[in-house]
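Morning!

This is the sequence you dropped in the shared folder:
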Amino acid sequence: MMKYAVGVDIGGTNSRVALVDENMNVIERVQFPTNIEEPDETLGQLAAVVKGFEADGKEVAGIGVSCPGPLDLMNGMVMETPNLNGKWHHFPVAKRIAELTGIPSYLENDANLAALAEAVVGEGKDYRFVQFLTVSTGLGSGQIIDKEIYIGAHGFGHEVANACMWNNGPQHGNLYPGGIEAISSGTAITTRARNAGLDVKHAGEVNDLAVAGNETAKAIMDDAK
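The structure's back. Tokens below.
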């Protein structure tokens, strides 16, 4: 009987759940908004989705969870990530999901897992070294060496959000002023554009304005690059 795994991405805006078979084929995807203040609401929805997979006769062997960092990977919990607030901070995500589903669950940085996927089955599968950047609500980085995640001595080898790129630069949330995430993430781009008087809903619209020749949008996108 074929066994399945569940991949979960808890994002700062949406959470996504995917059922994957033994051949790395995605069988089903479900998406719902993340409650960025209350982890139990989001994880309860996640557990309901997994139970739905099982009700269809799929045997789920394990759950892998990606989440914005920084994370305490040794204890499977979120630390003080800028994109999840309230009760998420210092919350044992992996343990709680295992309790709700009865399935072994594991937590890893979202950028690290995206990098691993590319290194194992994606564009980087023929290379020893693979680096991957995630640019969405936040900004993350992952590095793979010989198909294994490089995490550094204390698990924070690629926590780049607060890496200062611009002395006394833009402030965004509780990030370090001028940190790369405060300049180049989707939410930072959108916030800077709105503060500059542009009527935009997301970073894609800022980029569209830049391509169309809007000088303010162009300056913001040039900074982000």
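Headline: The mean pLDDT is 90.

More detail when I'm at my desk.
O.
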